[in-house]
Amino acid sequence: MGSVVWQRVLPTCCWFLLVCAPWTVLSHPQCLDYKPPFQPPEPLAFCKEYSKFGCCNVEKDNLVSQRYYMIMDYFDYSGYLTCGKYIRNILCQECSPYSAHLYDAEDANTPMRELPGLCGDYCSEFWHQCRYVLSLLTDNNTTIGIEDDRDRFCAFLELKDPQYCYPNVLSNTDLNANLGSVQADPEGCLQLCLQEVANGLRNPVAMVHANDGTHRFFVAEQLGYVWVYLPNGSRVDRPFLNLTRAVLTSPWAGDERGFLCLALHPHFTSVPKAYVYYSVAVKKQERIRISEFTLSTSDMNMLDHSSERTLLEVVEPASNHNGGQLLFGHDGYLYIFIGDGGKGGDPFGKFGNSQNK
């Protein structure tokens, strides 16, 4: 089984070091939906402090703003001046890059807080100034009767973690020093932000973006399937391409043969062609085959399987080191990486294939 993840920043050292040397200050930004924070595509108008990095896009920011003004309709001008800042600050914590901490949402198996966790001093200040706002901020019936009791009020709102409670989370230098920026740690590793976008795959070997405005991406499996994933994360039931009958594979887990790569024409919108790289047996002779397929005229999520045009076949003297990369260069040429032929010690030819220019 395999899975595919988006990788926002490329590491400069091995994965082992990334696991062993995480963020220097061990901060862990996370949103309420368990996804990583991001830079909003457009600046936020209401929770402006989270425009550079946080958990809200413009749509979410607008929803927070609407809720704020609905609550403020209950106040006269003096109440607006006294309580407006507290209500705004509390509502905007949904946009904080540490919202999962503030709402105790990191563990999907435990209830999420209805309101963000406050620091003790701030909670006391909030109680003295605007204690009766609580019933407007929450639909929780358990809050009835606690507004007159500061200890019960703050027991409900306080987050015991002094590092992540609001507003300490904003002033903590360690947590905020490098938020949203790419920093190398002492080992030379860059911070990564990973998000799973596909799972349940068998030996996924390639992922290609459609780059045609549809925001689809295609994932190829070594067995010979290519699947279409839509922008919402769902997968089209029928494969984009099914070459399982033609692809040379075996049950051996370490087999390096199979369907190895997919490349779309650089002008896929106007030239709907795809190029594939796979292992094949021709009269018991192992080869790699590069073929061209044309998109179906009736289904944009499927190639026309009858349109295969073989562009190149290369004999493989061994079953490993089959290369497998296809790339279109900026010069418009298709580059094919075929490997060195295989076997230990690079034994083929006078100097070995890998040394033969």
UniProtKB/TrEMBL annotation:
Pfam families: Folate_rec (PF03024), GSDH (PF07995). Keywords: Disulfide bond, Glycoprotein, Secreted, Signal. Its main location: secreted. One of its GO terms (cellular component) is extracellular region. InterPro entries: 6-blade_b-propeller_TolB-like, Folate_rcpt-like, Glc/Sorbosone_DH, Quinoprot_gluc/sorb_DH_b-prop. It is found in: Secreted. Gene3D superfamilies: TolB, C-terminal domain (2.120.10.30). Residues 201-343 form the Glucose/Sorbosone dehydrogenase domain. Residues 1-27 form the signal peptide. Residues 31-154 form the Folate receptor-like domain. Belongs to the HHIP family. PANTHER family: HEDGEHOG-INTERACTING PROTEIN, HHIP-LIKE PROTEIN 1. This is HHIP-like protein 2. It comes from Synaphobranchus kaupii (Kaup's arrowtooth eel). The lineage of its organism: Eukaryota, Metazoa, Chordata, Craniata, Vertebrata.
